[in-house]
Amino acid sequence: MAKNTIEVKDLDFYYGDFQALHDISLEIPANKVTAFIGPSGCGKSTFLRTLNRMNDLIEGTKVDGEVLIDQKNIYQEGIDIVDLRKRVGMVFQHPNPFPKSIYDNVAYGPRAHGLKDKAKLDKIVEDSLKSAALWDEVKDKLDSSAMGISGGQKQRLCIARALAVNPEILLMDEPTSALDPIATAKIEELIEDLKEEYTIVIVTHSMQQAARISDYTAFFYMGKLIEHGETEKIFEKPDNKKTEDYITGRFG
Ligand SMILES: Nc1ncnc2c1ncn2[C@@H]1O[C@H](COP(=O)(O)OP(=O)(O)OP(=O)(O)O)[C@@H](O)[C@H]1O
């Protein structure tokens, strides 16, 4: 199996007594974009967060089943969570830069992992901002506050921040829903480029977006994975009636 592939086996997830995910099995291929779609509350974000154990931060939650990354179950005992989150980065719906300079935002992760060498940090900051298609816009104001750039730039900065620790997989939870169409188009273009190097999983409410940028689409409904396959197939010839109803806008 290719490196950076995610394989989910028989996954159940609970918030206290409430079971939010039911028996999910899914393979997420490396160096592709996989989109999670489905109506509000169907469990897309919860499922995304199980892929880097972000739900561990919520009290009273429980997971059964396995999430294998490079064939190793991330829920097995002895897994280093800091290392896992370094390998599986995350970008959220609302761009959330730290109230620090642009430079310090990108250097934050590498510094937290112990890197002090200024020349190396400079290189990582530059490379990450270039990969996030933001370098040209901010290279002359790296010491300015990250709070003073536009929403779309902030989101690309958050992507740069995630890339700075050299992840293998990037999880994106509705990364463009707070952005205008131009900023959205920039991020979509960027996602296309990033899949050359990273495995990308994106939660989106926009079916147009899923159709535009994803190679694979997984449709969730009430905590269950209803259908999964190549995006073209899911959108043009879904096997399941519920998928078809959702895609054609009959509910959701
Ligand atoms: N912290 C939490 N505690 C308890 N229940 C939660 C929590 N977060 C989500 N849920 C519940 O789990 C279910 C799945 O929620 P989730 O946010 O994963 O859905 P979603 O498909 O991402 O929704 P949306 O598209 O609205 O963001 C919902 O019933 C939700 O109410």
Automatic annotation (TrEMBL):
* Cross-referenced InterPro entries: AAA+_ATPase, ABC_transporter-like_ATP-bd, ABC_transporter-like_CS, P-loop_NTPase, PstB-like
A molecular function (GO) held by this record is:
ATP binding
Q: What Gene3D superfamilies has UniProt attached to this entry?
A: P-loop containing nucleotide triphosphate hydrolases
Q: In which compartments does the protein localize?
A: Cell inner membrane
Task: Report membrane topology.
Answer: Peripheral membrane protein
**Gene Ontology, cellular component aspect:** plasma membrane
Q: Name one Pfam family in it.
A: ABC_tran
UniProtKB keywords: ATP-binding, Cell membrane, Membrane, Nucleotide-binding, Phosphate transport, Translocase, Transport
Q: Where is the ABC transporter domain?
A: 6-247
Chief localization: membrane
**Has UniProt tagged this entry with the keyword Membrane?**
yes
Q: Which GO terms describe its biological process?
A: phosphate ion transmembrane transport
What function is annotated for this protein? Part of the ABC transporter complex PstSACB involved in phosphate import. Responsible for energy coupling to the transport system.
The record's annotation in PANTHER family points to: ABC TRANSPORTER I FAMILY MEMBER 17
Protein name, please? Phosphate ABC transporter ATP-binding protein (PhoT family)
Q: What is the scientific name of the source organism?
A: Orenia marismortui
Q: What is the lineage of its organism?
A: Bacteria, Bacillati, Bacillota, Clostridia, Halanaerobiales
